[in-house]
Specification:
heterodimer, A: 114 residues, mainly beta, four-stranded antiparallel sheet, 0% helix, B: 112 residues, six-stranded mixed sheet, five-stranded antiparallel sheet
């Protein structure tokens, strides 16, 4: 069974640009969650999508948005990039809601904002 | 407001000894706790979990202890191996928001 895949693996953008990250969950998984990992803050929850609906959202500004498609694939978008958005963005999938069922993480997308 | 706290950013132990990683939480509504391990350039992988109805769960070399009154959990690794060197994240779930809340992680280094 293929694991969670994230594309691209690495990305360099400049301030003010926007970026879209993609996540393909494990086949059969309906939940996709997104996390931001930075050295000082650990893993911070961005949002969770379940069956194409956003079920939960973390404390991030509206520049961070996401969506989920009918095949459970998910995209995350960050508009008007800031230097502080440089981080590892992790996607995790699970059969049920995150926390209630085991999450499987992808390798992440390393975003650098210059 | 950090609801899940891992106060030790790093821990170094000798191979064969016990590693103890600690985690504190503030939200009394949390009822399920998980530990994840993360190697560089990889996503976190699930290690072990514990429900609030238990106070101990074992899986091979890994044991998690939960002290609900102290809102504290710990992960014990015995014996520690160099391959255990990684960042360990504590996570908690429960309450009305149904989201998984992670701590900042502890970097464990096991020296041969």
């Amino acid at each position: 069974k293929a694991g969670v895949t994230q594309t691209p693996r690495y990305l360099i953008k400049t301030r003010g640009q926007q970026v879209t990250l993609s996540c393909s969950p494990i086949s059969g998984h309906r939940s996709v969650s997104w996390y931001q990992q930075t050295p000082g803050q650990g893993l911070q929850f961005l949002f969770e999508y379940f069956s194409e609906t956003q079920r939960n959202k973390g404390n991030f500004p509206g520049r961070f948005s996401g969506r989920q498609f009918s095949n459970s694939r998910s995209e995350m978008n960050v508009s008007t990039l800031e230097l502080g958005d440089s981080a590892l963005y992790l996607c995790a999938s699970s059969w049920g809601l995150a926390g209630a069922s085991e999450q499987f993480f992808g390798p992440g997308t390393r975003l650098t904002v210059l | 407001d950090q609801q899940v706290k891992q106060n030790s950013p790093s821990l170094s132990v000798q191979e064969g000894r016990i590693s103890i990683l600690n985690c504190d939480y503030t939200n009394s509504m949390f009822d399920y706790f998980l530990w994840y391990k993360k190697y560089p350039a990889e996503g976190p992988t699930f290690l072990i979990s514990i429900s609030s109805i238990k106070d101990k769960n074992e899986d091979g070399r890994f044991t998690v202890f939960l002290n609900k009154s102290a809102k504290h959990l710990s992960l014990h690794i015995v014996p520690s191996q160099p391959g255990d060197s990684a960042v360990y994240f504590c996570a908690a779930f429960g309450g009305s928001n149904y989201k998984l809340t992670f701590g900042k992680g502890t970097l464990l280094t096991v020296n041969p």
